[in-house]
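thought: user wants a sequence for this fold. calling inverse folding tool.
action: design(structure=
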């Protein structure tokens, strides 16, 4: 007997391997088909409902029509189906693009468009074939996601389910929603495009074969009737998700969404948003996989959708209407306040010359310190744009005038500082219902933050509080007691801004620690030791460690907890670090920001070099010196610790500048008692 040659042996092994692979593939296919074909097997149907063509701007927005009738129709359409729990879906983070909204659903996590290169998603063309269909251009989508500073896997939803997904559409309509049915290779396992009349039957046929089916309904009233039929035919083993098709238009969106199958109909929410009535598009992936009893991949940052009692389309529309006007009104209100300050100054100078000018300087600066409190009031009232701007401008100035009369110079900033910070901490304790609706809030419409504080408040609140503390401590000198008071206030504010159950702002903790650390350093008596300086330097990182302990003990499920504390090794931490600085760098070079940031830095440098003249009205008082230096440090260090760094720098330096203007409004100069 002759032994096989090496070549024959290799051929035998290869053939055996192919047979094993074929058998394994057959077993998997048979298993998947068996599961999908079982009558009691769980299934997920994701349905997209096209909107109307006559959409109008939101009420209160610039150029708005009286009513946003089209969006109201879609929301009310979903609410009319009593089986559906209803809500609004935040499709993307930052600037909106319809294709990116659909891609984010498939990958279960998202970053802003500025994190991608190129920023805009490449064009995708659906190409049918014998097996189903595939998207031409998907390789560019995958490459773009891999180059982004985050773990992004387009097509992860369909790829996580045995047998993949199917898609059903209507002839003559845009099939862009089919992106949600694509797997990691851009393939759709089954495709059914046909007449609108046969869509419900085709969907049911696909559900008998696949565990995940995506469909786009017909437009106008036909789609609503198709939805009624799909809901009537839904079994107890089927989770039906219906949402407004992401429109191909610019501008931030909140898309109406309904879900049947999670429990008694109510209002949608999730741990991602912690905002009743609002979920994120990335929450659909873990919701679908949880329903199918499939393990959610670690790359997913979305959270399963939950229900809260109550169901009101009118409340959803009211929330959406308010969020849609916040961006347009922000700078209008701010410029109106600054314009009112200028008018007050000119009028005061006409009446009382220099003494009038100094009075207007004090009152205007105090009005800026009162502004955050006034914005909470308008958030609660939700008035028209004219009334809101009027309240912001006249209300802030009136409070500035009143506080100047009630509290002697230079302690008046303490009043608006403590009122504002106290009001915001109280609102955070109740889930930040007013903050998210205020003109200085994070605005959930842009999908970056749905509760807690945003970048503007992250720098404004600590800067105002530091100046208020400095004013309160005027004339008391340096002492360990003073340093302890500053440190204690900083600790309270840091916990309020950073804790997952409150502000949920990680960068805010480090920003507060840096600003108050500088202030504490300046309030300590005697010469500073190396150990004291070292403690101040490590204060931001110690504050971050404290935040981690608070979040873990309190059970907070914030973005910080999920992405940092549960990050998989130093590589994930490095990606987070790189991403934040990339975003900060891109923000720095956008528009007029380079010029504005340079002016802010030169202002800080001028304040340091000329601090003797700046603080001359209070004779270089230690309290005021610590407050002003701490406010400037909030801006400088906040710019280093946050992905929107330049914005924090501008806000903090502007508030510090208002503090300097208040000091220069020294009333004693009017009667010759001070030079």
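)
observation: tool returned 675 residues.
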């Amino acid at each position: 007997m002759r032994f096989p040659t090496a070549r024959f042996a290799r051929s035998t092994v290869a053939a055996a391997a192919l047979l094993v692979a074929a058998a394994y593939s057959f077993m998997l296919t048979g298993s998947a088909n068996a599961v999908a074909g079982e009558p009691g097997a769980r299934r997920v149907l994701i349905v997209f409902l096209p909107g109307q063509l006559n959409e109008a701007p939101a009420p209160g927005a610039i150029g708005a029509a009286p009513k946003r009738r089209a969006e109201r129709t879609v929301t009310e359409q979903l609410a009319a189906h009593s089986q559906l729990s209803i809500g609004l879906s935040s499709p993307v983070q930052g600037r909106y693009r319809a294709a990116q909204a659909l891609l984010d659903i498939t990958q279960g996590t998202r970053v802003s468009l500025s994190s991608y290169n190129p920023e805009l998603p490449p064009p995708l063309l659906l190409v049918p074939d014998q097996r189903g269909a595939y998207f031409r251009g998907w390789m560019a989508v995958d490459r773009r996601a891999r180059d982004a500073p985050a773990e992004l896997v387009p097509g992860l939803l369909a790829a996580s389910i045995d047998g993949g997904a199917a898609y059903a559409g209507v002839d003559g309509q845009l099939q862009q929603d089919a992106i949600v049915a694509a797997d990691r290779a851009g393939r759709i396992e089954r495709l059914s495009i046909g007449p609108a009349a046969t869509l419900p039957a085709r969907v049911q046929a696909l559900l008998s074969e696949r565990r995940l089916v995506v469909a786009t309904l017909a437009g106008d009233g036909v789609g609503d009737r198709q939805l009624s039929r799909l809901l009537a035919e839904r079994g107890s083993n089927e989770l039906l998700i219906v949402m407004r098709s992401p429109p191909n238009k610019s501008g931030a969106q909140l898309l109406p969404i309904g879900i049947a199958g999670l429990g008694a109909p109510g209002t949608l929410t999730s741990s991602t948003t912690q905002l009743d009535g609002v979920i994120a598009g990335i929450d659909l992936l873990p919701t679908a996989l949880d329903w199918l009893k499939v393990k959610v991949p670690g790359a997913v940052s979305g959270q399963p959708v939950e229900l809260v009692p109550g169901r009101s389309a009118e409340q959803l529309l009211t929330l959406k209407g308010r969020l849609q006007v916040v961006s347009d009104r922000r700078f209008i209100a701010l410029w109106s306040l600054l314009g009112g300050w200028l008018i007050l100054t000119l009028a005061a100078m006409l009446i009382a010359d220099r003494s009038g000018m100094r009075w207007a300087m004090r009152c205007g600066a105090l009005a800026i310190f009162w502004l955050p409190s006034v914005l909470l009031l308008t958030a609660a009232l939700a008035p028209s744009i004219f009334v809101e701007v009027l309240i912001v401008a006249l209300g802030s100035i009136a409070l500035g005038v009143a506080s100047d009369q009630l509290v002697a110079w230079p302690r008046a900033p303490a009043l608006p500082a403590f009122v504002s910070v106290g009001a915001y901490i109280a609102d955070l304790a109740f889930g930040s219902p007013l903050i998210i609706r205020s003109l200085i809030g994070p605005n959930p419409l842009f999908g970056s933050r749905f509760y807690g504080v945003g970048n503007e408040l992250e720098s404004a609140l600590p800067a105002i509080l530091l100046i208020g503390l400095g004013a309160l401590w005027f004339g008391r000198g340096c002492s360990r007691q003073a340093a302890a008071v500053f440190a204690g206030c900083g600790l309270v504010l840091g916990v309020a801004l950073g804790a997952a159950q409150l502000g949920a702002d990680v960068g805010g903790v480090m920003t507060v620690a840096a600003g108050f650390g500088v202030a504490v350093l300046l309030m300590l008596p005697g010469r500073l030791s190396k150990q004291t300086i070292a403690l101040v330097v490590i204060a931001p990182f110690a504050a971050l460690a404290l935040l981690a302990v608070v979040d873990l003990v309190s059970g907070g499920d914030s973005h910080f907890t999920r992405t940092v504390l549960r990050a998989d090794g130093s590589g994930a931490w490095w990606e987070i670090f790189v991403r934040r600085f990339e975003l900060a760098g891109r923000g720095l070079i956008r528009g007029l920001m380079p010029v504005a940031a340079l002016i802010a830095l030169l202002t800080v440098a001028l304040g340091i070099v000329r601090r003797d003249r700046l603080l001359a009205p209070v004779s270089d008082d230690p309290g005021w010196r610590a407050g002003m230096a701490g406010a400037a440090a909030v801006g400088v260090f906040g710019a280093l610790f946050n992905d929107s760094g330049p914005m924090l720098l501008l806000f903090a330096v502007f508030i510090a500048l208002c503090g300097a203007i208040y000091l220069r409004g020294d009333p004693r100069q009017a009667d010759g008692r001070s030079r």
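thought: summarizing for user.
answer: Here is the designed sequence. The mean pLDDT is 85.
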